[in-house]
Request: fold
Amino acid sequence: MAFHASILTLYPDMFPGHLGTSLAGRALERGDWSLEAVQIRDFAEDRHRTVDDTPAGGGAGMVLRPDILARAIDHASSEGDPRPRLLMSPRGEVLRQPLVRELAEGPGAVIVCGRFEGVDQRVIEARGLREVSIGDYILSGGEPAALVLLDAIVRLLPGVMGNALSGQSESFEDGLLEYPHYTRPQLFEGRSIPEVLTSGDHGAVARWRRAEAQKLTETRRPDLLAEKKFHGE
Reply:
């Protein structure tokens, strides 16, 4: 069964966005994965199609109403749907490659794009929404975050990347940042390709790449090494 994403949003025209081009777009056309954008306003019951209200207890901004969002979720994800329900939220767990791979190996996802000040906590609990963040910063809404999440997932789906091995040696796949890359010309502005990469010794190349990945990670993301050590890797 192909990966199927249902996006709940106030701005369905934002999808598929850049995912309609390049490798992801061709995979979408082939049916390797599918996408539906559900307009949350369609489930409002007043003539103005109002989806938000003032926050209980006071404060700035507006909050997405739980009853309307629940109806939208129930429409997109009927009882028995095995797909996880996600809410793009800056307070969620930070998106990492293991979660991306876990989702790519599943049947799809129902992704709620937050807006305004946030989503009523009761619908998060009642519909089992798993909150996911793409980083420690604030966006105007969950739609760009949902596109980032889907981009990371779709490229791992079978048949999307031309070389399946491309996804196995990238940053974060083994808890390290990726090693440096080089290609022709041999000499560029006085800088040459490291000799080991043109030696033909595949074992030496593998050791060099591993060492460079380790060095980069130690310099730029020591937290990744600390996490590997914590998990006994």
